[in-house]
């Protein structure tokens, strides 16, 4: 018998992935969580029916969401990751000398499943420089009295527990906890299949931060054409001079040239952003 | 009743597109041809079960495959398009002043269906500057005594009638019919889901041409992460100075900056190309 997972991406299209076996399945307090072994993408973590990370292409997403802000900042020390319970973003952030990371994940099962089944990512969460906090990122940041150099919003799609991570109130709190030269990055979905979200987040962030920039990549497993990350910054411009000191030569996706090229937007995306 | 088309992309994944109606269907001498109205992508042309072009995102593919070589060449006049029977590439090439286009499409039904159901593309094939030749591109080029400035290999996937368009023998014939400062571009599939093809074409072209460069985009309807085009050139380097004279301001994807950024490759793609 062939086993296929059906991933409903929009009402107009869905994707079938051939499955070798189900490694783990749990109905957590927050969502349906599965770790599957697929034919095409290696092991994958699925939340509420949508693939979040895969062994074969997670490096693209994680190198971009971590290194774009961390090389834009000349001396990042205090880093806050909201979400990212799989550990991939923390793993990349740890490649920057001197960083200290807090990671706030709402669902402890994501952390445990990643450590057990996706250790290439989850392993980073055992590093002593990473403090894992199980809790609601929105509540955490509202009460937070600490200041950060970089906040990374590594959320799942804007459904279920992640909805509030795309809201104006949340972004204002992130602005409050950033140092006066701090910056944030957020994953902001596909410009082809979720353009209203991208447009809305962009306008909201422009009301709060002096500098807002969108960069592009493509995440094969998301099957959505381009994928966007949005940077909102108090001082440093990610499209300007970036730090090259401490550059790791082992990256599979990120280079300073890839960083710069990612911010070159075609007119149809500028139109979505009203730029 | 809901109608869904299932597109088998690899043995490990397939995509379901919700269909509003079937506009046209024909078993031609060469392939199964369908024009469908989809929920997500507008009208689409499907060959042997794979979406080739869609109304909503065809501009990305066609602007890249036409303008990357045509702005690399300082004075393109004679242009040969192999495949491209939908007319989208010809429409973009016509935006370059002074060009004269020959287009060799093997399947007359593709031309007729595009003119009738996708006139935004097919309409270009009625332009007096475009000579449409119905025939086998491989045979045509073997017998061809004319010389061209730019050859655009706008093929379908390397199955069925397009297999020979990815072969060394064919590329040697293209080299022969190019002027001494001519160049070719070919669509060369996804680096994630068809990396062996990309690697093979790259090595083959490097044996024939002094300059071979790969550029990236992402075509949403192909649902394959990045998409590659490979340029092989006798003189002009598409990563060097490009022509800005005659630049059309109405493009939705192409700009000189997008052109340059598209050639910045992440290490994982350089590894596929052994660069």
Please count the beta strands of chain A (DSSP E, at least 2 residues each). 12
Distance between the termini of chain A: 51 Å
Greatest contact between two chains: A-B, 45 and 45 residues
Number of helices of chain A: 9
CATH fold group of the largest domain in chain A: Rossmann fold
What are the segments of chain A in which pLDDT stays under 50 over at least 5 consecutive residues? none
Mean pLDDT of chain A: 96
**How would you name the CATH homologous superfamily of the largest domain in chain A?**
Vaccinia Virus protein VP39
Please tell me the total number of domains of chain A: 2
List the helices and strands of chain A in order.
EEEEEHEHEHHEHEHEHEEHH
- Approximately what portion of the residues of chain A adopt beta-strand conformation? 25-35%
Q: List the quaternary state of the chains.
A: homodimer
Radius of gyration of chain A: 18 Å
Provide the CATH architecture of the largest domain in chain A: 3-Layer(aba) Sandwich
What would you call the structural class of chain A? alpha/beta
Main beta sheet strand tally, sense and closure of chain A: 7 strands, mixed
Shape of chain A from CA axes?
Answer: globular
Q: Give the helix level of chain A as a range of percent.
A: 25-40%
Strand order of the largest sheet of chain A: 8-7-6-9-10-12-11
* CATH class category of the largest domain in chain A: Alpha Beta
